[in-house]
Design a protein that fits this description.
alpha/beta, eight-stranded parallel beta sheet, six-stranded mixed beta sheet, 21 helices, 36% helix, globular, disordered N terminus
C-alpha cells in the first residue's frame, strides 16, 4: 500500500520523464526479485549440512537445482515468491545426498534380475535356489547369479557336483559375494573348454580336488575362461539395468555413485567403455539420469581416457563425470587371494595373489599421473596396500606436488605404519564398512587372532593420521545401504555378536556421515558441486525418519536430487 501511495505522489509531483524513469526503476527491482525467487523452500527441518562453516540449519532455498540460501527461516523466507513451493518438514532430519564411493552400478542392476544367493546359509538352500532358477530356464540358456558366501555354511566351497544333477542342459555361473571367485557347473566348464589339463592363467586359479579333477571353482583372472562364453547383455538390457539400479539407489538415499564398472583382473577392458558410451552417455543425452555418476576405467586404457578428457573435459553435464583410472594389486580375503606379508593361517603356503606386476603398475600410474588423471588401485591385504603406497610415493616424488587425490580402494588390512603413510602422502582410503561385518566372522581363521585384530579396517587410525576416509558399499558385493554402512562403521557389531569387533577403530556418527558425503565428494573431485548443503551447490539431500544418533531404526523418507523429489517412501 505504501508503494502504491508513493507511485501516486511521484506521478503528480514529478515530471513525466522522471515518472517514467521511476517505473523503469521499479521494473528492474521486480525483475531482480524474480531472479532471486526460490523454486523450493524447505523450512522447519533439522539440517545437518556437512559444511564446517555452517554445520546446522533449519531452512533452505533452492533455485534452478542449486542451493540459493541456507540458514534460518528468516534468512531463507525472503526469497519466497508467488511461484515458490513451500515444504514444511515438521522437524524431520535432513542430510546431504549420500555419495557411494565404490559401486559396480550396471553389474548390480543386471544382478538384481539374476539368482540372488547372498542370504543362503546352507548347501541345501543353495542347491534349492539354483534348481528353481534352472527350472525356469530353457535348454542351453545361461543361468547366472551370485552373492554366495561359503563362510555362511562353515567355509566349505561349493562344488559343481552340487548343481550338476539338475542342470545338465543349462550352463550355470555363480559369483561369490566378493566377485573374485565363481562356481561353474560341468556344462559351463565344457562349453568354455576348461578341463583338468587347462593351465592356471596368470593372476588366477582353477581349483582342483586332491586327484586333479575340477571342482568348478575359478578365481580372479581364471573366471574369464567362463565369462567370455556368456552372451554379453544387450544395450537395452544394460540400459534397463541402469534404470533399475538408479531407482534402488534413490530409495536408499544415494544421489551420486562412483562406478568402477564391469571389470576385474584379466577381463576385457571394453565393457566399461561400452557402458560409458552406450548407457551413460545415452541416458545423459536423452534426460534419463536420476542419479549422478562418476566413472572409472581400466588403467591400461589410460591414453584413451587422456584423449577423451583433453577433448571433452571431465564433466559431460551435472549428471555424468569421467572420474579416473583403476587397477588391481591383489584379490580378496574371502577367496584367499588378498596379498599379505605373512601366509594365510588356514593355507600356510599361500601369501595371496599379485594381480598385476608392480613394475607395470608403477609405469602406468606414472604415465597417467603426468597427464593429470586420477588413479585408484584395489588393495586389500597388508602387502598389497604397502606396495601401492610405495608406488604412489614414487610417483609423487618424481612428478612433483599437485592436487592428484590418489585412491586406494578397500584398504581393508593395513600394516602398522600404513595409516600414517596414507595421511602423510594424502592418499584417499576408499573403504566399505559393510565388508567388516562379513570378514569379522572368518578373519581370525584366515589371518590368526593377532593379525586380524591389529590390522583390519583401521578407520579410526586412518582419520587420526589425517587421511581422507571416503565410504561406499562395493555393491553388488554387499547391499547398497548407506544407513547400514554408517551403522557398521560406528558400531562394528556383526550378526551373532553383541560386542564390537576392534572397538578402538569405531568412528563417530559425524565422521561416518562426512565419509558418505563431503569426503566422498572430495575423493572424486566433485566437492565443488556436491557433498555438503552449502550455498551454490547442487541441492541433493535426503529426508530421514530420525537423527542418526537416535536409538530408533532410521529409514529414508524421501530423496531429492537438484531440489526435485526423486523418491518418496509414501
Amino acid at each position: 500500500m505504501a508503494v502504491n501511495k508513493l507511485k501516486v505522489v511521484l506521478w503528480v509531483v514529478l515530471p513525466v520523464s522522471a515518472s517514467l524513469s521511476f517505473y523503469v526503476f521499479l521494473s528492474i527491482l521486480a525483475s531482480l526479485a524474480l531472479q532471486d525467487e526460490a523454486d523450493v523452500i524447505i523450512t522447519n527441518a533439522v539440517i545437518y549440512t556437512c559444511d564446517p562453516d555452517l554445520p546446522w540449519a533449519d531452512s533452505m532455498a533452492v533455485r534452478k537445482g542449486r542451493i540459493s540460501r541456507i540458514g534460518s527461516v528468516a534468512r531463507v523466507q525472503v526469497t519466497a515468491g508467488p511461484r515458490t513451493q513451500n515444504i514444511d518438514l515438521q522437524g524431520k532430519f535432513v542430510v546431504p545426498g549420500f555419495i557411494d564411493s565404490h559401486v559396480h552400478f550396471i553389474s548390480a542392476g543386471l544382478q538384481m534380475a539374476q539368482v540372488e544367493l547372498r542370504d543362503i546359509h546352507s548347501r541345501v538352500d543353495f542347491t534349492r535356489k539354483v534348481e528353481l532358477a534352472v527350472q525356469g530356464a530353457r535348454s542351453g540358456q545361461w543361468v547366472l547369479g551370485g552373492g554366495w558366501n561359503n563362510e555362511n555354511w562353515g567355509g566349505e566351497l561349493p562344488h559343481a557336483s552340487w548343481i550338476d544333477y539338475f542342470s545338465q542342459q543349462q550352463p550355470v555361473w555363480l559369483f561369490r559375494m566378493d566377485g573374485h571367485m565363481g562356481l561353474a557347473n560341468s556344462v559351463a566348464l565344457e562349453k568354455a573348454g576348461v578341463n583338468r589339463n587347462t593351465l592356471d592363467p596368470k593372476g588366477g586359479s582353477i581349483i582342483r580336488d586332491k586327484d586333479g579333477w575340477l571342482t568348478g571353482i575359478l578365481i580372479d583372472s581364471a573366471m574369464v575362461l567362463i565369462m567370455r562364453c556368456i552372451p554379453e547383455p544387450s544395450i537395452e538390457d544394460r540400459r534397463i539395468a541402469f534404470a533399475r539400479a538408479s531407482k534402488h539407489a534413490l530409495s536408499k538415499g544415494v544421489t551420486s555413485v562412483v562406478d568402477f564398472g564391469r571389470f576385474f583382473p584379466g577381463s576385457s577392458t571394453t565393457k566399461v567403455w561400452d557402458d560409458y558410451h552406450e548407457v551413460y552417455k545415452w541416458a545423459d543425452a536423452v534426460g534419463n539420469m536420476s542419479v549422478r555418476v562418476s566413472t572409472f576405467f581400466p588403467l591400461e586404457t589410460w591414453s584413451h581416457l587422456v584423449n577423451l578428457v583433453r577433448e571433452k573435459g571431465h564433466a559431460s553435464s551435472q549428471w555424468l563425470r569421467v572420474g579416473g583410472l583403476k587397477a588391481f594389486a591383489d584379490g580378496s580375503l574371502g577367496s584367499n587371494t588378498a596379498l599379505f606379508h605373512e601366509p594365510y593361517v588356514d593355507y600356510c603356503e599361500n601369501y595371496g595373489l599379485e594381480a598385476d606386476d608392480p613394475r607395470w603398475l608403477l609405469n602406468l600410474v606414472m604415465e597417467a599421473d603426468q597427464s593429470n588423471i586420477q588413479v585408484a588401485v584395489h588393495a586389500i591385504g597388508d602387502a598389497a596396500n604397502d606396495e601401492v603406497l610405495s608406488i604412489f610415493e614414487t610417483v609423487i616424488a618424481r612428478n612433483g606436488p599437485r592436487d592428484r587425490r590418489f585412491r586406494i580402494e578397500h584398504a581393508q588390512h593395513l600394516s602398522s605404519g600404513a595409516p600414517a603413510r596414507f595421511g602423510a602422502l594424502g592418499i584417499i582410503a576408499s573403504v566399505q564398512p559393510q565388508h567388516l561385518l562379513d570378514d569379522a566372522h572368518f578373519a581370525a581363521k584366515k589371518l590368526g587372532e593377532e593379525r586380524s585384530l591389529t590390522e583390519s579396517y583401521l578407520f579410526n587410525s586412518l582419520l587420526k593420521y589425517g587421511a581422507c576416509l571416503a565410504l561406499g558399499s562395493d555393491w553388488p558385493v554387499v547391499p547398497l545401504d548407506p544407513l547400514e554402512a554408517i551403522k557398521a562403521a560406528t558400531k562394528r557389531v556383526h550378526s551373532g555378536n553383541n560386542r564390537p569387533w576392534i572397538p578402538s577403530e569405531i568412528i563417530s556418527i559425524e565422521d561416518a556421515i562426512t565419509g558418505y558425503t563431503l569426503s566422498a565428494a572430495y575423493a572424486s573431485f566433485m566437492d565443488h558441486d556436491i557433498g555438503s548443503l552449502s550455498y551454490g551447490k547442487l541441492a541433493d539431500f535426503v529426508l530421514l525418519s530420525d537423527m542418526l544418533n537416535s536409538s530408533a531404526e532410521v529409514s529414508v523418507l524421501a530423496t531429492y536430487v537438484g531440489g526435485t523429489m526423486m523418491y518418496s517412501a509414501e
